[in-house]
Please model this.
Amino acid sequence: MIKKLDKLIVRAFVGPFFATFLISLFVLVMQFFWLYIDDLVGKGLDIFTIFRLIGYVSAFNVPLALPLALLLSSIMTFGNLGESFELVAIKAAGISLLRFMRPLMVVTIGISGIAFLFSNNIIPVVNLKLNALKYDIIVTKPAFDIKEGVFYDKLEGFVIKLGKKEKDDSTIRSVIIYERNPGLQDRMLVAESGIMSVTPDKRFLQFKLFNGWRYEENGPRGVKATEFIRLGFKEYKKLFDLSSFKMNRTEDSLFKYDAKMLSVRQLGIAIDSMKHMDTVFYKRAQREVASYYTFERYADSNWAAVQKLPPTKARSFNELVPDTLKRDVEDRAISQINSIKSAMQLLSNDYEEKQRVERKHYIELNRKFTLSVACLVLFMIGAPLGSIIRKGGLGTPLIFAIAFFVIFHLLNTFGEKFAKQEVTSVGFGMWLSTMVLIPIGIFLTSKALSDSQLFNKEFYFRFFKKVKRLFGKNKAVTTPS
Model:
């Protein structure tokens, strides 16, 4: 049964949660754009592509923004209630902190479930779309922009130099256009002035040139008897194809085999199929290496009986092989050994790559759950922390929230790196932050239950004042009269 107290707490929590969630999401989205700013600027992206990219990045960062929002909003909620002495009144009524936290714990469990469903069902699709769009943007050429006094070579097969551009960005002076197609001889256009514009369909760049010359050389390169043509003109129109500047659409299927694009069910199927690959590698090793051991073909059923015979004096290699064949036998033996070594090295590299991909699938499988559990863990830290510091607003709560979230993020990053580099197991690496932060949450909860003065400035001020007074007395006692 939902009581008025539960409604009060949930109502006090909802506003800060949505506000901090939007702030956290904005910060994480901006972090992405700061990271890829060099790949995005100057590409001439249309507004629809930009909004699509922002949408994908926002959806991708939702599972990471939820734990941060829960941490900050829980500190703010309990800090506001403590600052207004509502928390003191509730405790005076005989209601414990754990009972007080119960409605928000239920809400947090619901948010954790939403985070898991989001990570499992939506994030793989968003990852697929985001990677395809990000690839298209990165490989797109910079937007078309010819500056005066600079040789511009982004148009395939041409180099353009403008002496001057007027303020209208269309009228140009002292134009030089050099055609650099390797299949042709030297061709060049020189004009006093012109008008530069893009065709209405944005497919071509049009140069309308005035008062100039066109120089062309025909004939095989390097031969003296070549034909040189000079053509004067009063008006000349030149078109340049701009199709290479457009962003091409890459099929999503190009990225669908990455582990990040799979759900829990798909990851389980992929991991199960990889486990059966060990048998395939074993058979492949037998097939590829056994072909080099030709002496195995001559093994017979009497080999076991021969092994039981009394040992005879072994003869050396030099006694068995004639001198004329020693060099040839050694060369063939070395060649066989090198071939076996190369085959085994190739097989080993393939097996290591298979293990790396398998670990990556295990990492992504664990990630689906770690970010969901992180919502509960950070709430366990934020709620008792807010009741201890008893400060609302965005000041003190924000400082503590950033500190604990940085610890959580660093432990997550280091744990994942350790798992990828096989320093630790995948389970230990991916759950490292949870294992470290749960004891902190339990410690803070116990301190909050006992009304600890852990973050009270006055407590520390009184403590150090007593210490100073104690040292003052000791000094007075030890001073000789």
